[in-house]
Amino acid sequence: MASPWFLAPLCIGVGSGVTVAVLGIPKLWTSEAAGWASAAGTSFAALVALGVGLLPENRRRKEALLRVSAQMSVVVSALETQLTHLGRAIEISRQPQFDYPLRVRLFSDTDEIKPESLTGLLSLVEHLTDRCFERTAVCLENANRLQALMRNFRSMPMEDVLVPGIFFTQILVIAYLSIDDARLAYLDHLGRAADELLLEPDEVKTARAARG
Q1: pTM for this model (two decimals)
Q2: What are the residues whose beta carbons fall under 8 Å from the beta carbon of 31, sequence distance 6 or more?
Q3: CA atoms within 13 A of residue 161's CA, in its CB half-sphere
Q4: Average pLDDT of the residues of the chain
């Protein structure tokens, strides 16, 4: 940040320069002209001080935007990996019953859904677009809901057989869509084209089509 010891003489010098430029050499000044020139010089010096003072703030903002973009790129990669695991979990959820070995497979995939991969972006919330912020919040909400449900599944005795019903698949699909919505918002913010996701589950395609 510019030091006040630097700004003060700079602004005074600029103001004096404007005054001389307006009136010429001091012996030619009249009192009225000197007043106008002094006002002009003071105003110009104030504008220079304002401009110089804003430079550090503009620099900080640009640096913050660069951090957001860099972090977003990392998050996009993480979300694409999470979508792959979530797609597998949706395939598993088609089974009418979950015995313990099947639950272990389910845990292996859902453990990769990590809400904390998004929380770093919220620390830079003032630099997120409204769309990115909204998609991040929804994604976090659905990912946390899924993890809470999986903790309940983990608490079941090994010998128990779980009959999840269609609601479990729906929770997985909602989480999938919200993660993909966040991914698409980030890619749009970064100005990058979205790659087509491979092996997207039919349940997701149906839900996406229903949304319009």
Answers
A1: 0.71
A2: none
A3: 5
A4: 80
